[in-house]
Amino acid sequence: MSEQQNGPTTRRVSARVGAIAESATLAVDARAKALKAAGRPVIGFGAGEPDFPTPDYVVQAAAAACADPVNHRYTPAGGLPELKAAIVAKTERDSGYAVAPEQVLVTNGGKQAVYEAFATLLDPGDEVLLPAPYWTTYPEAIRLAGGVPVEVLAGTEAGYLVDVEALEAARTPRTKVLLFCSPSNPTGAVYPPEQVQAIGEWAARHGLWVVTDEIYEHLLYDGAQAPSMPVLVPELADRTLVLNGVAKTYAMTGWRVGWLIGPRDVVRAATNLQSHLTSNVANVSQRAAVAALEGPLDAVAAMREAFDRRRRTIVSMLSEAPGVVCPTPQGAFYVYPDVRGVLGRTIRGRTPTTSAELAEVVLEEVEVAVVPGEAFGPSGWLRLSYALGDEDLAEGVGRLVGLLREAT
Ligand code: PMP
Q1: 27 and 148 fall within a common domain
Q2: Which residue among 36, 182, 271, 291 is buried most deeply as judged by most CB within 10 Å?
Q3: How far is the CA of 253 from the centre of ligand 1 (A)?
Q4: Per-residue pLDDT reduced to its tens digit, 289-298
Q5: How many whole angstroms separate alpha carbon 326 and alpha carbon 337?
Q6: 106 domain residue, yes or no
């Protein structure tokens, strides 16, 4: 049957939802896992999550919470008061940003915070400046809210960092929001403090809102810093939403706890939305997040050390590949090599002309899963997560570099 089952004007799937692309990062990860399950020696660089277990004291707190019937019930839709208090304290401790509990909404992961931020801020046709390469979820969340993502590309030569000039060139009377993410997924780039300040001052000058995603705040290398934009530019605070979560800092991706911090009226509105969407985050997960936030930052320090070691290995190995330019990332756990110099060359009888085709050749020929740049903006790059064991990392990158050396 055609899509039009109920008459000529209705469709089975709405245009709005039908237009959503599958999350390319989750798709690559799923494909790699499926091949692995079928016995193929696939090494996956697609995952956007730490390969460490959640710290023990967090798991213990969750186990204790499970046993207490008080946690078998709903919490307030916007989150447990204890967790909001812990988020307030953590934000002051880590960012020097003083906020009130009424400015916090606890969400189902940072991802729901992204969705709710745009749903709460955007009217149809409102434009969002989206520095590219961008995390694959942002444009979908913007479009679902009726907004228009306006990509502002910063490529390899720019160190994947947009500047005020480029943003200003893309600004129109419809521009309402700037999306900012530092350290960045997918590039691992970190904005220097003076650039954060310059961008914040520019946004404040033009009355723009800023949605700033700080989920990788603790994964910084080489002495890099990632100050919170509304701290550097206090006049922006009344038009800033800060997004964050426990996923990356405490290896808690599966627990699904994130949050959004913003002005009271916006947070109230977003909480109303969430009260009809998902209600509260799982009670036990919120208790686990309280333990995580009130605990030390030792676990992330240990992870950072391992990530840093792998980062150095992966950058130096990839830099050996002909046609590849691999900038050294200063944050998160991704590298974003520029592979435009490989495209159009022939590898084992195939001539990929896009990074998506190259990623396919790599998966099929050497069983290494990487995410093509098309998931994050233009073709021509690959994203590799280095959140995997040192041996797998060396073996997988070795296979990839060996294959690229065959290009003629
Ligand atoms: N923001 C960025 C930039 C991310 O990379 C991710 C995870 N991939 C998230 C937010 C959301 O993380 P979660 O929903 O697992 O908390």
Answers
A1: no
A2: 182
A3: 8
A4: 999 999 999 9
A5: 4
A6: yes
User: Which DSSP helix (H) or strand (E) runs through 281?
Assistant: none
Query: Are 218 and 300 in contact, with CB atoms under 8 Å apart?
Result: yes
**Residue after which a domain boundary falls, among 294, 313, 334:** 294
Nearest to 358 by CA among 333, 327, 384, 328: 384
- Ligand 1 pocket: which of 215, 217, 246, 383 to mutate (most atoms within 8 A of CB): 215
Q: 215 CA to middle of ligand 1, Å? A: 7
Residues 6 or more apart whose Cβ sits within 8 Å of residue 343: 352, 353, 354, 355, 358, 379, 380
Q: Cα(245) to centroid of ligand 1, in Å?
A: 8
Q: Give yes or no: residues 248 and 130 share one domain.
A: yes
In the chain, the number of structural domains is 2
Tokens of 80: 């447990």
199-255 tens-digit pLDDT = 999 999 999 999 999 999 999 999 999 999 999 999 999 999 999 999 999 999 999
List, chain by chain if needed, residues with CB within 6 Å of any ligand 1 atom.
48, 109-111, 135, 181, 185, 213, 215, 245, 247, 253, 258
Structure tokens at 217: 């705040």
Task: Give the predicted TM-score (pTM) of the model.
Answer: 0.95
Q: Is the previous residue joined to 193 through a cis bond, with omega within 30 degrees of 0?
A: no
Last residue of a domain, one of 253, 270, 294: 294
**341-347 mean pLDDT:** 97
Give CA–CA dist 77/65, Å, rounded: 18
Task: Tell me, yes or no, whether 6 lies in a domain.
Answer: no
CA of residue 141 to ligand 1 center, whole Å = 13
SS3 at position 144: helix
